[in-house]
Amino acid sequence: MHLYQISSKLLGDTVGKMNDNLTSVVLAASVITLTLGYMSKVLLKQSQKYPPYIPSSIPFLGHAIAFGKSPIEFLENAYEKYGPVFSFTMVGKTFTYLLGSEAASLMFNSKNEDLNAEDVYSRLTTPVFGKGVAYDVPNPIFLEQKKMLKTGLNIAHFKQHVRIIEAETREYFERWGDSGERNLFEALSELIILTASSCLHGKEIRSMLDERVAQLYADLDGGFSHAAWLLPGWLPLPSFRRKCIRYQRDRAHREIKNIFFKDDILQTLIDATYKDGHPLNDNEIAGMLIGLLLAGQHTSSTTSAWMGFFMARDKALQKRCYAEQKTVCGEDLPPLDFDQLKDLSLLERCLKETLRLRPPIMTMMRMARSPQTAAGYTIPVGHQVCVSPTVNHRLSDTWAERMEFNPDRYLNDNPAAGEKFAYVPFGAGRHRCIGENFAYVQIKTIWSTMLRLYDFDLVDGYFPTINYTTMIHTPHNPIIRYKRRKQ
Ligand code: HEM
């Protein structure tokens, strides 16, 4: 029987017994209602089970140090101890992680009004992309903006992109000479900003991309840090020390916007209109151009650098990838084209496996704006709800030989295939990435070209450790040895 039914029955009985004594009836009714109200509150509280909470003896900071040192280890240990859903505090904020495919479904199936992205991302992205775009606007508007951007990311364009990227890559690596040891991550970061700009912005803007503009992008990027996101802006933190990164970030945003205003490229955006017919204004166009470039910059450069180290570590695999170039494209290795690129399936699996073991976005986050239920627990309003692709991609219940880099695992029966969110390097649901296909075209073209140019080795067997101090987990000391192939 529901509480309100019990309440009316009790009231009815009492009224019957008390007959005409109106005052007593009112009094009794009030007492009963209040008692039942209180009881229902207590019962509701008892029936609401909050996620297990990882205690900490450090006030305010909580687990920030342990998490910052080794976030994946921290989350994996917590998973072992507490299960797929648990909460902990860092820097005064409570985080609730949803680990594994089933728990993660809450985030990917939720509405933005309930688990909100703007609340957690906008303080980081709005100063970089500018106002009026991405997380600075209500999500239905951002969804329209994503649609506009997606129109530029189609197969007809990808066909041109392959040629552009191959040419940029060949030109870039001329400076490497025939053999040596170089910082692979740095090189790929520079190359990817050039190729992404050529493909997504057009050749006019690419031609302005000299070292000064690259520095402006780097300054904008300084805005993407743990500190900028987690901590109040007034704290005198080390990462803000270097001539105040925030100042550099804001100045860089203004200058880059001016460069875009000089040009009338990305006609798609200029011609685009929202559903109600109004066009994008100049700020929105500039913001979208910056966002387009930066969304793929770290993600793709980190991924391609890790992919290089995985191939350098496994020489037999590297040999197979080079042989695949010849089998698919022809013995004399003619210029790449989009259709051949699609058939480079081993290279594609290497990329897929790299994104499994080193997904650049290690945590996706939302703010709980209404109470949420996962694994039988109630997640209260105000918790930052998180899903970690990195952890999902290596859970031992889901992945066989979970820590092995094995691109061929996707050829076999693969238990993870049955779990919807076991593999989510590009997210899922309404916030899913729009750049996946472009990223695959870009990284596969770059690595096809690099494999044709060079043979790669680790330097004295060193495989980079993971740098956890950056928001995207980059390779630490990413030096690679290379030697030109004899054609
Ligand atoms: C290896 C490359 C990339 C990876 C691993 C990646 C990963 C992701 C992930 C995990 C999300 C979901 C974020 C969340 O749910 O909180 C996302 C969203 C997004 N990505 Fe990517 N991305 C990549 C490249 C790109 C590129 C090249 C572009 C643009 C051309 C791009 C544009 C976007 C956009 C616009 C969103 C939507 C964010 C939202 O709706 O909230 N990404 N990406």
Automatic annotation (TrEMBL):
GO terms for biological process: cholesterol biosynthetic process. It catalyses: a 14alpha-methyl steroid + 3 reduced [NADPH--hemoprotein reductase] + 3 O2 = a Delta(14) steroid + formate + 3 oxidized [NADPH--hemoprotein reductase] + 4 H2O + 4 H(+); lanosterol + 3 reduced [NADPH--hemoprotein reductase] + 3 O2 = 4,4-dimethyl-5alpha-cholesta-8,14,24-trien-3beta-ol + formate + 3 oxidized [NADPH--hemoprotein reductase] + 4 H2O + 4 H(+); 32-hydroxy-24,25-dihydrolanosterol + reduced [NADPH--hemoprotein reductase] + O2 = 32-oxo-24,25-dihydrolanosterol + oxidized [NADPH--hemoprotein reductase] + 2 H2O + H(+); 32-oxolanosterol + reduced [NADPH--hemoprotein reductase] + O2 = 4,4-dimethyl-5alpha-cholesta-8,14,24-trien-3beta-ol + formate + oxidized [NADPH--hemoprotein reductase] + H2O + 2 H(+). GO terms for cellular component: endoplasmic reticulum membrane. Heme binds at residue 433. Keywords: Cholesterol biosynthesis, Cholesterol metabolism, Endoplasmic reticulum, Heme, Iron, Lipid biosynthesis, Lipid metabolism, Membrane, Metal-binding, Monooxygenase, Oxidoreductase, Steroid biosynthesis, Steroid metabolism, Sterol biosynthesis, Sterol metabolism, Transmembrane, Transmembrane helix. The chain crosses the membrane at residues 21-39. It comes from the Eukaryota. GO terms for molecular function: heme binding; iron ion binding; sterol 14-demethylase activity. It is an enzyme of class 1 (oxidoreductase). It holds the Pfam family p450. PROSITE patterns: CYTOCHROME_P450 (PS00086). This is Lanosterol 14-alpha demethylase. It comes from Myripristis murdjan. The lineage of its organism: Eukaryota, Metazoa, Chordata, Craniata, Vertebrata.
